[in-house]
Fold these 4 entries.
Entry 1:
Amino acid sequence: MNAINFCVIKVGSNVLTDKDGNPDIKRMDHLVAEITEYRKKGIKVILVSSGAVAFGRKETILPEKLNPVLKKQIWASTGQIDLINTYKKLFAKSTLQVAQILVTKEDFRDRKHFLNMKNCVLGLLAQGIIPIINENDTVAITELMFTDNDELASLSAAMVDADTLILLTNVDGIYTGPPDHPGSELIREVGHGTEKLSSYISATKSSFGRGGMLTKLNMSKKSADLGIQVFIANGKSENILGKILSKDTNFTYFEPKKAKQSTKKWLAHGDQYFKGEVIINQGAKTALYDHKIISLLPIGVTSVYGEFKKGDILRISDEEGNRLGLGRAEYPSKTALERIGLKNQKPIIHYDYLYLFHHD
């Protein structure tokens, strides 16, 4: 396990709520105190916090028959005020200032928006301000919603080049079966060669959150692949962040691979944002997976799908339909179609903006 210098801490709804779904202010206070200790040790912290809907549900009573999406939007928009104000008051005890950042997937899709957001977050940290990030549920629609805040936290960690991602939930980590079953054992470490773990995990979602352990597993593996170490731990446990730092507690740890370049970290999460797709032949596939640094040239492309412009994210697949990776288009779809299979052309995807799945 590596030292923690710069971390994104995600706190789930089940950590911040009690059994009735009401906000657990005492737990929030404990976590704020622990984050403050991280800051005293010189660790940079970004907080990704759920809980807005729980705060809104407590304060705003809505008709049962009201559209569920509208209900969530109302609770999220009213509850976000209370959530951030509660954090503001709790951090103020240690004279720490917080900032609210509300985002949607659209903010991560466009490279320019992505960099603007990154600069804002890093600027806040440079001024000693703790960024608190949450999804803008008020404007997010189903197609553009994050799977849950685990995905948002993973994206945020990649965006700012954090070395650590801590996902706090209401269990100690990933188990070999349902956590409440006597025979289930905690999986303490997930290495590069660890067998597939998804078969152990129930698809059941948490009581008050939108996601479940399967999302945590997928996001943790993706983050580790990008060079970010990940801890999944129990946010209800006392002094959990301090114990993670001293490695004196139960958690599931994901061993990181070699850190990827910043642009590749952005691309790694683009599988839901791509605007077009290129199909490549076996020769191009072999070349891309060679150890030499190489861009994707039109001569290796057999088909181009979708309408896209320069700078949009493209998905790369082989002729058998296997998804190979993602890249940034160097020119628009019209030009790409004209250059399919041609020699002596500029790359359709430059190596600097190319991310391959399952490739060191």
Entry 2:
Amino acid sequence: MADAVLPDPVLIVLLGAAGSGKSALAGAWPPSAVLELDEFRERICDDPIDEDATDEAVHVLGEVLEARLARRLTTVVDADGPDRVVRAKLLDIAGRHRVPAAALILTTPLETCLERNARRPPERRVPDDVVRLQYAETVDATPGLPGEGFGHVEAVYGGPMRLVS
């Protein structure tokens, strides 16, 4: 991250494609402060990438986030794909607790995301077309993040984003 100074408490939402380095960046915070959507999916259905479990996983993640922000604890959410509905739910929870929100966008090049994803164990590997979609959605979502309610938006980690066919 650049020289940004974030308030405490703050909700930090990590955005980027699978393989962009969100989990590595999340390691900068104590494990108790990090809520990873894949982990909640795995707890629900034993499969961290099962998209059919996403709604339930987001619900449970939201409950934990609600409890943490009620206690005024900085919380980092690693929610893989940049889904606007999920972001809206996270921002709503932060707003109810008067906790500011920051979006950190992982700008790792698509080729690097795909290479890293290919090295994952089979049960954690995301299909390449999904990685490409997540990447494109992140690029598309980035300009609108301040209008959604993020008080701080910062690109971090890799090189500039560019779409690759």
Entry 3:
Amino acid sequence: MPPRHLADLNADERRKAVQELGLPKFRADQIARQYYGRLVADPEQMTDLPAQLRATVADSLFPPLLTEVRHVVCDDGATRKTLWRAGDGTLLESVLMRYPDRNTLCISSQAGCGMACPFCATGQGGLNRNLSTAEIVDQVRAAAAALRDNEVPGGPGRLSNIVFMGMGEPLANYKRVVNAVRRITSASPDGLGISQRSVVVSTVGLAPAIRKLADEGLSVTLAVSLHTPDDELRDTLVPVNNRWSVSEVLDAARYYADRSGRRVSVEYALIRDVNDQPWRADLLGSKLHRALGSRVHVNLIPLNPTPGSEWDASPKPVEREFVRRVEAQGVACTVRDTRGQEIAAACGQLAAEG
């Protein structure tokens, strides 16, 4: 893990850290407003901080976190994927997507992933390590600054939505992810001020952690990567299902919906001849309706195949029939707008290429 960074600290910890440097407490919020409010990560650019203090603050609170390795863009510049290198050489990714009504950043919570889902590029590579709270938050700060400073085609903009759907299983890095959510959603000087309702935290189904998240008092959207409604296939597609079955995951999702008052999103990567059969659409719809009623939405994802993979996306007629059958069970179902296919935007593909 990297050394302590300002974004790792809550307000009390931040003030204590500043006092340990021999500085008055007010400097803590002053520095935090530069980072969270002005999106400045280099103390040398913090003009309201005395010049003689900047190097000390940099050494103590701003260790190098993430360095851009490269950007790749597609969709006429509306999608930009960034490969980052952490201080220890670890590679991770984030993807910024511009839409007419919002600007969404997909962020990583781990370098690699230990969930071993066979159709996922990140899962194929295994887990390198958890990311620190600051490494997660700084992906967001950097994207917000890039949008504001007109570095992304489409003119100056504001980052509006965050999805924890990049590399890693967020709930397997639970404490740091929850801390990062609080930094992302708190107002300056404690955070970046993005609405909790505009944050999505995904999971492959770590049922106890879903219940724990429900008790945090957050109003983020929970997204459950289900990918099939039956345990027999899910044991293979999502190996963690061997620990927590579909019914246990849906029970936990219902608890989250009850506690948060938020609708749960169910992610379903549609894979040709694997999980796209009509009977699976019927079973998915009926199970979700029983478990969650109207408090669920199925997000159908056309598979973005990884190089050399045996998996492929389902044909459009099959996709349309799947949607029809899920909706016939009284469950909302839409197909995700696919972005970034020509730039290897499926999580982990860019890092795998180095």
Entry 4:
Amino acid sequence: MGQHEELIQIINKSGAHHAWGVKHCTRVYLLAKELAEPINLDDEVLYYSALLHDTGRYPAYALANVDHSLRSKGVAANILQRMAFPSHKIPIVLEAIENHMYYSEPGRSDEAVYLRDSDILDNLGNIGLTRLFSLIGQDELIRTPEDAIDRARIFAEALPNKVYTKTGKRLAVKRREEILRFLSGIKKQTSEFAYI
């Protein structure tokens, strides 16, 4: 088994909710590559950063009262060392993982910046809405459909301002509009959210 397959197996065996699992990580990786064009990112650093950035929130690795990005950094360090990942690249991967959340400043490397932007963008638009609604009852902040709608509203207002790159900002505007169209439609169809 190759290292890429091993990473996927680690995620699949970790109890990861599909909103944060392999498909999310793969979307983040692919979107980061797309946003960064024509910049030449280190594909190995970007791939491992994307696949490991949320490991600290998976049931097999999560620790109570520990921010998942910091926990992910620790888990990733162990995995990368075990896999004999190039040692000079490990600090770059770990910095990208530690700084991937919207409430963090972007890391110093291009890989860290594009990973963060892509992760933020995966919480916006149609895919972001799908992820929010899949988390109802699975996340302490999203217990009901009303919570998912409130979170969508918060994301639409706050997250586009957190995106750092020009290409990411343009996409954030489009994805924000997708959320706002959805919220407007659901508001009309549920008598101003009364019957959701």
